[in-house]
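The data are passed on as follows:
___
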Amino acid sequence: MAPEGVKVNGWRREPPVECPKHPRVPKGRQSGERGMSYSCLYYHVVFSTKQRRPFLTEAVRPRLVEYVGGITRNLKGKLLHAGGVSDHVHLVVSLPATLAVSDYVRDVKSNSSSWIRREFPDLREFRWQDGHATFTVAPSVLPQLRRYLDSQEQHHRGVPFTEELKRLLDRHGVRYDPRYIG
């Protein structure tokens, strides 16, 4: 495995991170009183470029990861790892319980698409595909998921994104309409 901060297949390997502290103090209570709520929620989020166009070059990907990391921090979450290839991304994130995953994905896609068009003038037509897939991740699976994301370039030499997405959906027992996958 590559050391922290080193790029692997155009993606930067992030250091291992403990689940962020997202305590929520219920209304009417002082911090330190009983009744605190704690969470440790890890998500694997996958979404593709519009029409699966190969916009995410090796020049774009590392900067995109940094930008998405900033969005995630602003939303009080942590981007733990990222991967993908030229037509889609995988994000492993820890989010506070107060943030809906769909709101997180909406903010990431909206902000990053306008940022990509601004920072890379030759990508004026860049858009993300509508929709996303999100899966919960057990902490014990994070190392395996990181290895999987680090091997995306190699993985996609033999498996197209649509097939990968179907496998992920099937593995997690998610029903889907094949018309919207391929």
